Amino acid sequence: MPEVILNVQNLSKCYGKFTAVNDISFDIKPGEVFGFLGPNGAGKTTTMKVCTGLLKPTKGFVTVSGFDIVKQSVEAKSQFGYVPDNPFLYDKLSGREFIYFVSRLYNQYPSEQKIKELFDSFEISDKIDELIQTYSRGMRQKVALISALIHNPKILFLDEPTANLDPRSVRLTKDIFRVMTKKGGSVFLSTHVMEIAERLCDRIGVIHNGKLIAYNSVSELKKQASGETPTLEDVFFELTGGYNTETKKLLEELEK
Amino acid sequence: MLIIKALLQKEIIALQNTYFKARDQKQGIIALFFLGSTTTLGIIWYLAVQFKQMLEFYPVEMAIRFMIFPFLNLILLWSMVSDFTAMLYEVRLKFYLSPELKLLIPSPISATTLFIFKFLWTTCFSAFAMGNRTIFVLSPLIALGIASLAPWHYFLFLMPIVYLLSVISASLGALLSIFLTRILTTKRLIQIITIFGLLWSGFLIFIFIWEDTENLLSLLMNLTEATASALFFLNDAVKSLINIIQGNTAKAFELLLRLFLTSGVILFISMFIAGRVYYSGYDKVQATEGNVKIKTKRLFETFSAKSKWGNLVFIEWIKALRNHEMAQGSIFIVIVLFSCLFFASRIELSYPYSMLIQLINISAIGFLITVAVEMLFVPLNTDAVTHKDLLKDRYGLLKAAPISGIDFMWCQWLASFVPIFFLGGSISIIFNFLTGNSVLVTFLSFAVLSLLTGSVNLLALALYIERPTEQHETYNSVFGALRKVLPFLYYIFALSILAIGLVHTHIRILNFLNNTPEWLIITISGVIFLVLSCITICYSFRLGVKQWERMEI
The whole model's pTM is what? Predict the structure, then answer.
């Protein structure tokens, strides 16, 4: 097993003159859940898209299980599962057909029973043969999660995975992460829910204005923050600059 | 009134954003229209000149009764039928399945106001109503005007006449569609249209095989006269144009006025009746479209188990079938091509008639090509400004999956080419059989068809996924325009090379080749065509693979 599953080195991504991601480096080890935090527009999704081969890096490189995402893209992509914030699903396929289709892309032939079990776990097996266009957002998210898990990936890339899920499915997702990491798999998780990041992640990276401004374990990050018992939210808030003057003014006015 | 103004502003701003802010789309659309119209007009102009020479041999009354009257009738009737059938589906999308309804229906707008606005916009003012339906039939009518030495106001009358007829057929189509919605699902509606299309094609083949030339001619004449008397508005439109050609402007204006009033009355009656049943149909559509069960599960499992490639190809077909695109596209092509076949097969009729039929035939083919190009290469209004999102929806999943550029190109190409190959191949074989061509000619036409459709398909695919690496909404404008017209240009150019070779055996176009044997000319044009197709296939494939690897989502 390689020492690191994901290795991001000096990664930059520019759109014309705008730099979305500016020279960031980090890695994810086997069995680790890595949380990626940042305000809206900080560069989280761009980083994840570069890591999954949807965008090309302007500078630097990314390897997944030792395979370069640009030069050995097919090999690298076989190693991971990806669930974007707005999942790519085909409306005109049923849930079952979609899972069959995705598994073939990874040269997998899952049994009928395995698919049924996964749908049962997420409590959507009654909708398995209906078109995805009829699914709610939460159900689409669940199908996307199933499709990412179906080929037993070494690392899961998840962009806001719990955004549309009901509490039971959130709990199930967390448990899946635990099982996966216990078996040596890794999770790269981008989220705005501090509670999830705090409870699940072994290490946290905070990105702000395209730069990685913090990269450590939750406990180490907390030590850096002011206050007696800072939460991860406090740490995040402090790192990303707190409120600006206008916001403070607005809050004061609202208080009056 | 304020609400109507707000709705209208929203439509106008959306159109502005589509056509003027997305620079490449604007350039592409202009270039495409310019090229398509000029090419069609050029061909028709040439035929019109010959048509004019034929007209001079006949007394005016005879020429009008036997040539101009059926010609105008057929062109305008054909335009009305296509408007009518297009509206059957268009209304489904605009009135029942459009996502904007989820915003507008819960907002504080009276249901009647919203319906009236949507009905008037769809039938009278939308780009679909104004552009797509009227522009394509204008070129043959302009050509007729030139051929008949019509006065200048003939050309002024054309636009309102074609437009008013289009409003009538759109209103009736919308009314029927809204009525049918209460009874049928979208899928069932498409199936019924398909069955009617096939029956119509069968009817044409039956006539072709069993009827002799004289009976066919009288059938054509009776059909046009019966249609004209049954559809009084069509009769008014045709007579108005004929009156201008004959110099009776006052009578022509009176008929135009009557047509205007008729279209207004039909529009308002259709809107009134449709408004009564619209909302009950809306509820039904929401309920049925949201609960679609799949019946092809086993078929999918059996097929997709074979290979990654088969899986990728099959998934595209399943999506297309369930989107009803393939059914619509196939039936449209079958109907138009069989109609063309029917007319083309009559070319051996007496010369003036054959010219007339050729004129209709060419305009039908011109229309078919323009519509096909428009459907394939110019995204719909809403798509034009969200091309990036389209790529994301279409290719996002595949881009993150372990698929190489070569696999991707093969699968996407096969998915679209195989249906075209079988459909086009069948039509080509039937055509050759009906016209009594030899096995060799049949084989050659089949090979030409395969090479041409295969290469143009691949080129279009490679250009479709071409994008610069920066995430800009717009392209370089020249490239944007080229991207859309290049497959169209290539199609015409490649076919022209073959056509020049074949025509040259009868008419010596190039003087310096006068002494060259026929077989050599045909061989040279054939070889050039073959080389050009092969180069296009190789180049497009490589370009597609490169673009897939470069593509950013």
Answer: 0.69
> To the nearest whole angstrom, how far is the Cα of A126 from the nearest Cα of chain B?
12
User: B294–A102: do the CB atoms touch at under 8 Å?
Assistant: no
Instruction: Look at residues B335, B333, B334, B341 and name the one whose alpha carbon lies nearest to residue B357.
Output: B341
Those residues with Cβ within 8 angstroms of residue B79's Cβ, 6 or more apart along the chain or in another chain: B133, B136, B137, B162, B165, B166, B169
Q: What pLDDT score does A59 carry? A: 92
For chain B, the residue count is: 553
Task: Pick from A17, A49, A92 the residue to mutate for testing the B interface (most B CBs within 10 Å).
Answer: A92
Query: Considering only CB atoms, which chain B residues are within 8 Å of A16?
Result: 470, 472
Predicted pLDDT at B320: 66
CA–CA separation, B125 vs B140, rounded Å?
23
Contact assignment for B402 to A73 by CB distance below 8 Å: yes
Among the residues of B323-350, which ranges form H helices? 325-344
Residue type, B454: G
CA proximity to B186, closest of B45, B56, B281: B281
> Which contiguous run of DSSP H or E holds residue A6?
strand A6-15
Token pair, residue B417, equals: 């080419």
DSSP state string for B181-241: HTT--HHHHHHHHHHHHHHHHHHHHHHHHHS-HHHHHHHHHHHHHHHHHHSHHHHHHHHHH
Per-residue pLDDT, A7 = 93
What is the DSSP code (8-state) at residue A78?
A: T
Instruction: Say which of B305, B396, B402 has its CB closest to residue A88.
Output: B396
Question: Chain A residues with CB inside 8 Å of B190's CB?
Answer: none
Strand A155-159 and strand A18-28: pairing? unpaired
pLDDT average, residue stretch A78-91: 86
Q: List the one residue out of B18, B19, B33 whose CA is nearest residue B485.
A: B33
Size of interface A-B (CB pairs under 8 A): 94
Report how far residue A105's alpha carbon sits from residue A90's, in angstroms, rounded to the nearest whole number. Answer: 14
Using one digit for the tens of pLDDT, what is the confidence trace for B96-142? 777 777 767 766 677 777 888 888 888 887 655 555 555 567 766 77
Closest CA to B409 of B356, B454, B439, B379: B454
Contact A201, A31 (CB under 8 A): no
What is the signed CA dihedral for B78, B83, B85, B91, rounded to 10 degrees?
180
Question: Hey, what amino acid is at B28?
Answer: G
Q: Contacts of residue B99 in chain A, CB cutoff 8 Å?
A: none
Which tokens is B123 given?
A: 């039938």
Q: How confident is the model at residue B264 (pLDDT cuts 50, 70, 90)?
A: very high
Instruction: Provide, for chain A, the percentages of residues in helix, strand and coil under a 3-state DSSP scheme, each rounded to the nearest 5.
Output: 40, 25, 35
Convert the pLDDT of each residue in A69-79 to its tens digit. Answer: 988 888 898 89
The A59-64 sheet, strands edge to edge: A18-28, A6-15, A59-64, A67-68
Q: Do B305 and A109 touch (CB under 8 A)?
A: yes
Residues in chain B closer than 8 A to A129 (CB atoms):
293-294, 297
Strands of the A203-208 sheet, one edge to the other: A80-83, A155-159, A186-190, A33-37, A203-208, A211-217
Name residues whose C-beta falls within 8 Å of residue B218's C-beta, 6 or more positions apart in sequence: none
The tokens for A151 are 């080929």
What are chain A's domains? 1-79+155-166+186-256 (3.40.50.300)
Give CA–CA dist B331/B192, Å, rounded. Answer: 11
Asked whether the predicted pLDDT for residue B401 surpasses 80, the reply is yes
**CA–CA distance, B147 with B143 (Å, rounded to integer):** 6
Q: Do A129 and B293 touch (CB under 8 A)?
A: yes
| DSSP one-letter code for B401 | S
Chain B residues touching A75 at Cβ < 8 A: 402
